[in-house]
Structure formats: structure tokens, C-alpha cells
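Field log, afternoon session.

UNIT: design team B
ACTIVITY: writing a sequence onto a fixed backbone
BACKBONE:
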């Protein structure tokens, strides 16, 4: 860059840093607790263009580096600024299969926005400290605007290769693999154990975080590409991986996630009205026909006191669901402090605004029942000790601090791990001590022709990391399929 160009750039940066942040309109707490619609209303085009102008277009783009799928964020925002909305939306689509979902669901404060230089910049008064560019909300705006007002261009699919791929699981990892391999000309079939595809996008994430029409539109788009979905099929039980390979599938991708909810292994966990988070969320959020028979009974929380155990994003989804189901009192109990909580700050703010109470440094030690139904939790206060393997300070019980917490419903949201079914039914498939599937750097498992990625490899993580795994695994699967010629 010449000195003259540097001067112009510096002047432009100064101008951009004077643009105040454009807030994303949101439903008021008192309104949103009465409906299941998204809490955020989204940007208008005018506000989105102004917000995009806050990006100072830094050449090193630390935001792009921090994004697990490597989105070219400055590249998209300069196009939006210039009025090329389709080009800007497509810039995100170059590296992401799910921009409307990631834009809403990523913990941006610890990913792209956490690295945004604008958020660190010092500005003269009256602006002072300003937040980073709202990267996620702009990404979601662009993807929504394109879907609703422009439409997605017909995908350019390579000629059919004659190769067939079985994809097990229809969450972000499986959907990304199916889309990428179909573009390469391979025939993809997605097998899903639930009655409707989507993985946690459907049966975990509630409507107030992401409207289901976004997932529906994606599934329709994938079906139009020629991807076949076989629902209500549990691989390892209804049909094995070996049988799929015998049926002529040339490769298999395991995108089976981490669906097994953690247990506290304490007395009273078997009582009626003690729920696992997933069962609670789907019964609260989905229509009966979207659920397996055993889960079709709707939840009745009206006037009930609900205790949610755990402090992550799942527990925030549970407490906010309980509020919308008219619980009289909703409490989140977490054994560490707010500083150690792993979920998004934004979600904790939403929950607090909606009337949820937090009991930090507290854990249940036993559930007590009346006539087989939970009636209270025996609890103990904790204090923080030395850091554990995760680097967070370990909670330690305080002797003599036991107390009883009355509750009518308990929800356990204390983490997830992968299912062992496929390891048990697939000869040669190896897993780790944490039940995650062993893969090499090309996402190949220990069973030839079988690949894996997403939460079943990483442990419970994020939509964007699962999708990014799916994209990288699809490249490896493509090379594998081509090598079979
Ligand atoms: C309640 C909840 C809220 C969350 N909120 C967020 C959030 O706000 N932001 C975020 O980034 N992440 C969030 N996550 C995490 C995120 O959803 C996951 O990391 C992501 O969905 C993992 O994607 P995946 O494709 O690996 O697996 P999944 O989405 O779990 O999909 C796996 C699919 O495989 C199917 N399956 C499993 N075994 C078999 C089998 N043997 N045969 C056939 N099908 C099978 C399952 O039914 C499932 O549909 C949340 C998770 C939960 C549980
Ligand atoms: S995918 Fe997630 S981390 Fe990447 S730019 Fe979008 S919101 Fe940020």
C-alpha cells in the first residue's frame, strides 16, 4: 500500500468507527413470553447496510480466522455496503451450508465477534466503547433476505458419478455432507431415526431461537437437489452399516451427534416428572406427529414449579420453554458461578428478562417424591476449588449446607454424549474412552469406507463446528469415492 492509499484507508477507518452500532430489534420480554416466535426480529435492509459499514475491512480479518467455517466476513459486508445483497449472501454460502442458522445460533462472542477489531477500538466521546460488528445477525439477515426476496439459484450439480453414499443422521454435519457430495454428482441417502429430519436443529433448538421454517426451507432445497431422506430408520437396529455396504453404498458418513443425555446418578431420578432435556424440549416445542409415539403426550406445566439443572445453552432453552408453558416458577440450578457458565450470555439475559431465577453454586443431591412424582430436591451449596481439566474451578460441596427445594417438575440438562449403538453393531469401528468415534485427519474411521464428523467425534459442541466438519469430511469422502474408479 502506498502512503497516499494508507492515508485514505486511515481516514475511512476513522469515519467507519464513528458509525454507532445498529441495534437488532427484539420482542419485549412481556410480549415474547406469550408466543413461540423468535425473540430477535432481525435487521431492516437500511439498518443492515449501516451496520455493515461499521466493518473497517481489516486485511488480516481476525473474525474470519475465528469463524470455524472460515466465512469471508469483510468480503460479504463490502458487497452489502455496495448494494449487492445476493453477492453478499452468496459470499457466506461459499463456505457455509447453513448461514441463516449459524447467524442465529453461533456463540459469536467467543467466535467471530469476539475477534472483531471494531469491538476493541477506542473512540472519542460521545461514542466511546462500542460493541463489535453484529456479524451473526448480518449473516442471518442476508441469508433470510435472499431466501425470501431473491430466491436461491438452482445448484450447479456435477454429472452423476454412479457412486452412492449413506449418511447416518440429519443434523448439521449430515446435511452438509449430503449437500456437498450431491454437488459432486454422488447419490446421497440420509437415514434418520426420528420421524422428521433435522437433528438437534429440529428436536433441540426451540422456535424462539430459530423459527422452524428456516429448517423446512433447507430440507426442501436439499430434497429438490435429489437427496433422499429415509426417516424412522435406526441404523444399527433396523439395518446395520455392513448391510448398507452390502446394499451397494460405496461410502458411509456417521453424523449421529451426541444424543444421550447425562444422568446425575442420584436417588429419585426415576420419579415421574423428572425429565431429560431433549424429551422435555421436544414435548414442549414440537407437534405430536413430529415425535416418536412414546413422546407424544404434551407437557402440562401450568402453575407448576420447574427446576432445571445445568448451566449451558440447553438449560437456557429448557427454562425459556418452561416459561412459555406457563410454569408458575422457573429456576436454573448450576453448581458453579455465572463466570464459569459455558452457554451464551445473550441467552442468560433473555432468561432473566423472562423471569427465570438462578441458583448458582448449588446442586441437587437427591430428588424426593410423593406418590411416585417428584415433590422436592434435596440440595447442597458449593464453593469453587482448584481448576479442573477444563481450566474452570472445580465445585466442592460445603458440609452442612443441605436444604430442600420444593418443585413439581425437574429437567436434567447436564450434557450429552454419543450413543454406543453403532460401535456395538459395526465390526472394526473404534471409539474413544469418551464414546466419541475415532477418526484420522481425513475424518476416516477405523472401518474402511466409513467416515464420521460432528458431535459424535468432537463431543457435544456447536452447529457451526458440526457443519464445518461435514464440509471437510465430504471432501475426503469425494477423494475416496474417486479413488475407487
Ligand atoms: C437443546 C440444545 C440446544 C442447542 N443450542 C445450540 C445453539 O444455540 N447454538 C449452537 O451452535 N449449538 C447448539 N446446540 C448444539 C448443536 O445443536 C449440536 O452441536 C449440533 O446439532 C451437532 O450436529 P450433528 O450433526 O453432529 O448432530 P445432531 O444435530 O445431534 O444430529 C444427529 C442426528 O443423527 C440421528 N441419529 C443418531 N443415531 C442414529 C442412528 N443410529 N440411526 C439413524 N439416525 C441416528 C439423530 O437422531 C440426529 O437427528 C444445542 C444442542 C442442544 C441439545
Ligand atoms: S458461522 Fe458463526 S462464527 Fe462464522 S461468521 Fe457466522 S456467526 Fe460468526
Amino acid at each position: 500500500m502506498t502512503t497516499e492509499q494508507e492515508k485514505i484507508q486511515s481516514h475511512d477507518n476513522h469515519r467507519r468507527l464513528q458509525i454507532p452500532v445498529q441495534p437488532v430489534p427484539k420482542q419485549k420480554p412481556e410480549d415474547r413470553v406469550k408466543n413461540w416466535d423468535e425473540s430477535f426480529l432481525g435487521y431492516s435492509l437500511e439498518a443492515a447496510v449501516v451496520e455493515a459499514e461499521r466493518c473497517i475491512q481489516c486485511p488480516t480479518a481476525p473474525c474470519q480466522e475465528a469463524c470455524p467455517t472460515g466465512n469471508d466476513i469483510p468480503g460479504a459486508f463490502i458487497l452489502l455496503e455496495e448494494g449487492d445483497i445476493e453477492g453478499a449472501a452468496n459470499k457466506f454460502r461459499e463456505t457455509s451450508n447453513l448461514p441463516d442458522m449459524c447467524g442465529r445460533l453461533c456463540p459469536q462472542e467467543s467466535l467471530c465477534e469476539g475477534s472483531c477489531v471494531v469491538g476493541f477500538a477506542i473512540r472519542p466521546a460521545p461514542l466511546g466503547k462500542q460493541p463489535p460488528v453484529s456479524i451473526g445477525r448480518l449473516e442471518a439477515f442476508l441469508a433470510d433476505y435472499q431466501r425470501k426476496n431473491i430466491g436461491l439459484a438452482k445448484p450447479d450439480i456435477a454429472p452423476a458419478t454412479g457412486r452412492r453414499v449413506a449418511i447416518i443422521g440429519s443434523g448439521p454435519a449430515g446435511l452438509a455432507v449430503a449437500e456437498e457430495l450431491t454437488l459432486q454428482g454422488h447419490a446421497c441417502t440420509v437415514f434418520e431415526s426420528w420421524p422428521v429430519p433435522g437433528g438437534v436443529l429440529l428436536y433441540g433448538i426451540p422456535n424462539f431461537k430459530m423459527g422452524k421454517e428456516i429448517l423446512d426451507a433447507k430440507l426442501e432445497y436439499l430434497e429438490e437437489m435429489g437427496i433422499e431422506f429415509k426417516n424412522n430408520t435406526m441404523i444399527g437396529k433396523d439395518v446395520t452399516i455392513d448391510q448398507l455396504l452390502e446394499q451397494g453404498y460405496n461410502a458411509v458418513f456417521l453424523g449421529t451427534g451426541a444424543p444421550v443425555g447425562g444422568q446425575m446418578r442420584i436417588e429419585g431420578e426415576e420419579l415421574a416428572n423428572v425429565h431429560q432435556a431433549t424429551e422435555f424440549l421436544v414435548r414442549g416445542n414440537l407437534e405430536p406427529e413430529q415425535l416418536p409415539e412414546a413422546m407424544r403426550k404434551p407437557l402440562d406445566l401450568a402453575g407448576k414449579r420447574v427446576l432445571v439443572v445445568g448451566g449451558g445453552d440447553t438449560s437456557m432453552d429448557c427454562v425459556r420453554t418452561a416459561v412459555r408453558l406457563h410454569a408458575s416458577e422457573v429456576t436454573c440450578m448450576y453448581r458453579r458461578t455465572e463466570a464459569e457458565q459455558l452457554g451464551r450470555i445473550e441467552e442468560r439475559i433473555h432468561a432473566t428478562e423472562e423471569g427465570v431465577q438462578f441458583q448458582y453454586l448449588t446442586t441437587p443431591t437427591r430428588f424426593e417424591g410423593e406418590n411416585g412424582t417428584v415433590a422436592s430436591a434435596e440440595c447442597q451449596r458449593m464453593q469453587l476449588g482448584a481448576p479442573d481439566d477444563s481450566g474452570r474451578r472445580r465445585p466442592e460441596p460445603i458440609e452442612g449446607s443441605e436444604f430442600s427445594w420444593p418443585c413439581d417438575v425437574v429437567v436434567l440438562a447436564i450434557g450429552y454424549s454419543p450413543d454406543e449403538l453403532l460401535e456395538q453393531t459395526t465390526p472394526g469401528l473404534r471409539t474413544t474412552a469418551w464414546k466419541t468415534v475415532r477418526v484420522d485427519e481425513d475424518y476416516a474411521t477405523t472401518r474402511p469406507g466409513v467416515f464420521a464428523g460432528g458431535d459424535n467425534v468432537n463431543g457435544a459442541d456447536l452447529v457451526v463446528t458440526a457443519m464445518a466438519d461435514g464440509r471437510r469430511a465430504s471432501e475426503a469422502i469425494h477423494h475416496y469415492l474417486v479413488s475407487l474408479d
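LOG NOTE: Residues 12-150 form a domain with the Fumarate Reductase Iron-sulfur Protein; Chain B, domain 2 fold (CATH 1.10.1060.10).
NEXT ACTIVITY: expression trials, pending approval
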